[in-house]
Amino acid sequence: MPLRPSKRRGERGGCWQDDKAAIEPFTITGVASACAPISTELDCIATDKGEKCIVTSYGNGICTADEADAADRAYTQALNAKGEFSTLGETAAARANERAGAAFRDMVVRIRRGDRLAASPSPGGCT
Length: 127
Prior knowledge:
Elements: H1 17-23, E1 28-32, E2 41-47, E3 50-57, H2 65-79, H3 90-113
Antiparallel strand pairs: 1-2, 2-3
C-alpha cells in the first residue's frame, strides 16, 4: 500500500517528507531491501489487523514505483548489454558495472527533470 509521494524532491526528506510526518505518531519498524540500484524502504505499523507496511522511499530522489521501475530497467539493461552479467569475465564485468551505473544516474537525472517515462514491464529486480 504505497503512500502518494509529495512533489518536494529538493527539500530535506524529499518526496516522502509529508508522508513520513503523517505516520510519525505511530510505532514504526523500518525495513529495507538490499538491492542494486534501488533499495526500497518500507515503514511498518502495527494495527489491530496485523502489521501494515508502506513504501516510504526508493532513494535517489525517486518518488514513484514507475520511476523506480524505469531506473531499475535502465540499470539492468545496461548491465547485461554485452551478455549476461553473471557470465562476464572480470574486465567485462567491471565495464558492465560502470555502464549500468551511468545508465542509472542518467535515468535519475531524467526523473528529477520531470521527463515523461515510457511504460514497460519491470526487469524483475527489487522494485
